[in-house]
Amino acid sequence: MCESQQVAVREVVITNTHGLHLRPVMKFVDIANQYTSEIRVDKGEGSEPVDGKSPMAMMVLEAPKGTRLRIQATGVDARETVDALIRLVESKFDEE
Amino acid sequence: MEIIQGISVAPGIAIAPAVVLDAEEYRIPHRHVAPGQVESELNRLARALESSIAELQEQRTALAAQLGHDAADVFNWHIGVLRDASVRRSVEQLIRAKQHSAAYAASFVMRSHQRRFMQMSDPLLAERIRDVRDIERRLVRHILGESREDLAHLSREVVLVAHDLSASQTAQISGTRAVGVVLDAGGSTSHTAILLRSLGRPSVIGVKDVSTRVSGGDLMIVDGTHQIVIINPDEATLAHYRSEEQAYDRLIVELQSLRELEPITKDGTRIRLNANIEFPGEAKTTREYGADGVGLYRTEFLFLRGEGEPTEQEQCRAYAAALKGAGGRPVTIRTFDLGADKYTQEKHYEQERNPMLGLRSIRYSLQNLDMFKTQLRAILRASVHGPVRLMFPLIISLMEFRQAKMTLHDAMEDLEDEGVPFDRDIPVGIMMETPAAALLCKELAREVGFMSVGTNDMIQYMLAVDRGNERVSRFFTPSHPAILRVLRDVIRTCQRQGVDCSLCGEMAGEPLYTLLLLGLGLRDFSMAPRNIPEIKKLVRLVTIPQVERVARKALTFETERQVTNYLRDATKKVLPGDPIY
């Protein structure tokens, strides 16, 4: 693996009323796609990680309000990627 | 010739050959391609993705312009999925590794995602399966190209026949030459019905099995005014409808010219003609029909988008948009009339045996106070953008009205504490739509700011008839003598108590009843925007003593048939040769 690769992981709980529905999902992947890092998102122990840049995968993840998400980024901008996504989720996707 | 009864969602007459959309999916011609064709299949996929996205972007813009951004938002996800690199990789892999055709591979991948949605426990998320089907259909259509009839490129006028239409298919109709729509499925409050109504093409839904009974090319007559569909009409019927259609078209043109004229009777009484709307974006277009304001803004659409409970901010934005669109003319917002619909029924652990008599409307709001308060806060916050009136639906008692008003006061106090500005003197009224409320009209009139008679529910509860039930719907009529008496009493009581009374049921937009309602003393009507010119025309042709005579006479009859015949004759005398009935 290339030296400049970093891995960043953080967890966040979904608190907006609708959870990951149409609009929040699009906001999430729109931000995710601004970064070069690979992004994996899962719902904790034993759940299968999905591609955080994929609108389909993020919807299929099935994450209503109260779900704990684990967001992992791998790449040169891993840290910034994860921070930006966490900020979005914590701000309730700027919807409320 | 075959005549089938359905539920009308948009009036008017359409005559054209049928195009039948399969209830089934597209039949995909080839599963495998020759090894040498893999590259060209990959190119087909790339082109189809691009053109699907372009088409969606166009539709999104068109729909947003027409109905506002909320209605168009769902397409963003569709576009996102078509740009989704993971999805595209899986499709391309199937083409490369298994030499599947692009159409087959795309369909296969979308189907596997549909199965995941099917297993979901959250009903709102599971609903998204319809969107994935929608995306699949669009993509496959673009891959297969011109081999299928594309709605947008129809070379002649058609009547669209289908089992059901998705939201995006329905939205697509606005840009096509489909002059009428007929569906197997549907209730009058479904998402599709609401969109069809806004588009204003003659449409009849809930026509059992029609998509299997009709073949492409069959001549169809859609009579949205009489809620019927005629398949392969005989000569005489066709001739009759052709002349009706022409007369209707002439009338529409003539009515447009009425827009600038005021609804004043011949002897100088100003009548208020308001519009009923479903989407905030419609508020602006009601001005084109010459509406005095919005007499009924149904807010349920915020729920029917399928994203669950709308947030305070979402609602506030929608209400503010409606108020701004109305441009200073008053807007009456009705609080959620939920219940007996998909959203609430899915939330119940047990299905209600009789949802129309169940936990619906104001009862549902009063049992879900957080939701209710959120809506009230949103309406109050929006109230700084223009004159707004607040209306509670399905009130049966004073207690209910007081409870609702108390919740409103709570919301007001909270906003005051937070220093948020709003209109403290917002008029608060009720829908007069239950027999109980009608009998308590005098007592209610002392406490409410205004009343609006909802004849659809009033007739349903007075006559004990579900008009969506085809076996009894023929009993549903505003002409029933009992309905006439209730209307007389309610309007009279409001006049005596000095309370504003309007009428916002479908009856308000039916020319057959205009003379009667004016004669009973009604001065404020609210109806589908497109009915306004027709009613205005009638208003301008009568005098108050004349319509009072009509109302007095109508009240003397014992049967609904006599009432209907009499009103038809009376109206024809005022408007000879009018084809509306």
Structural features, described:
The complex is a heterodimer of chains A (96) and B (581). Chain A is an alpha+beta fold and 96 residues long. Chain A has one domain (6-94): Histidine-containing Protein, Chain: A. Helices cover 31% and strands 24% of the residues of chain A. Chain A is built from three helices and four strands. In chain A, strands 1-4-2-3 form a four-stranded antiparallel β-sheet, with helices on one face. In chain A, strand 2 (38-42) and strand 3 (50-51) form a beta hairpin. In chain A, helix 1 packs antiparallel against helix 3 (78-90). Chain B is of the alpha/beta class and 581 residues long. Chain B contains 26 helices and 16 strands. In chain B, strands 1-8-7-3-4-5-6-2 form an eight-stranded mixed β-sheet. In chain B, helix 8 links the parallel strand 4 (158-162) and strand 5 (178-183). The A-B interface holds A 16-19, 21-23, 25-26, 29, 51, 53-57, 59-60, 62, 64, 95-96 and B 73-74, 76-77, 80-81, 83-87, 113, 116-117, 120, 122, 124-125, 128, 132, 307-309, 311-314.
Secondary structure layout plus pairing:
The complex is a heterodimer of chains A (96) and B (581).
Chain A: E1 6-13, H1 22-32, E2 38-42, E3 50-51, H2 55-60, E4 68-75, H3 78-90
Antiparallel strand pairs in A: 1-4, 2-3, 2-4
Helix pairs in contact in A: 1-3
Chain B: E1 2-5, E2 7-10, E3 13-21, H1 38-67, H2 69-72, H3 74-83, H4 85-98, H5 102-118, H6 123-126, H7 129-144, E4 158-162, H8 167-172, E5 178-183, H9 191-199, E6 203-205, H10 210-213, E7 219-223, E8 228-231, H11 235-256, E9 272-277, H12 282-285, E10 294-298, H13 301-304, H14 312-326, E11 331-334, H15 342-347, H16 361-367, H17 369-382, E12 388-392, H18 398-417, E13 428-432, H19 435-439, H20 441-447, E14 450-453, H21 455-463, H22 481-497, E15 500-503, H23 514-519, E16 524-527, H24 532-539, H25 544-554, H26 560-574
Parallel strand pairs in B: 3-4, 4-5, 5-6, 9-10, 9-16, 10-11, 11-12, 12-13, 13-14, 14-15
Antiparallel strand pairs in B: 1-8, 2-6, 3-7, 7-8
Helix pairs in contact in B: 1-3, 1-7, 4-5, 5-7, 14-17, 17-18, 20-22
